[in-house]
Design brief:
- It is a single chain.
- With 174 residues, this protein is mainly β.
- The radius of gyration is 15 Å and the shape is globular.
Amino acid sequence: GTLAYTGPGTITDRGATLSGSGGTFDVIAGASLTNIGVIAGSGALKVVDAGNLILAVANTYIGGTTVNNSTLTLSNILAAGTGTITLTNNATLVLKTAGTVQYNNQINVAAGTTNTISVPNTGAALLPEMNGPFTGNGTVILNMDTAGGTIAQTPGIGTNGMANFNGTFKIADN
């Protein structure tokens, strides 16, 4: 099913179990929805529309995550479960977990699309490492907000690296 959110910004503790074809969060442009309920199950999660879904807790779903023309903010290293995160159609993935952390999800970048991975300035030291492999043929812009010097070093590409990524990777500094 689909959970459509049309308000300006709120927090929900709505847990969900994804099965079969999974479920969708539809957050409209200009809206921000923070979910602190656990998402579990074997299905996939889709994030659609132009709003921002913030996953704030460790989730256990395994079917993967597709971010389509939306923003997905991960404020917990296990927020996207254990499956592949697919970025498509101008998607933004925000890594907003303070400290030295490893995101182990595979990142798939859809062919013919330009997407962003963002590391924001939160006032706390950020040192994310994307340890899962990158795959796909699209374009990724790694956008690091280093204003105030809060990123301890350049976010890393981990041991699984870029061997199967045939797209373009650009690094930007706000």
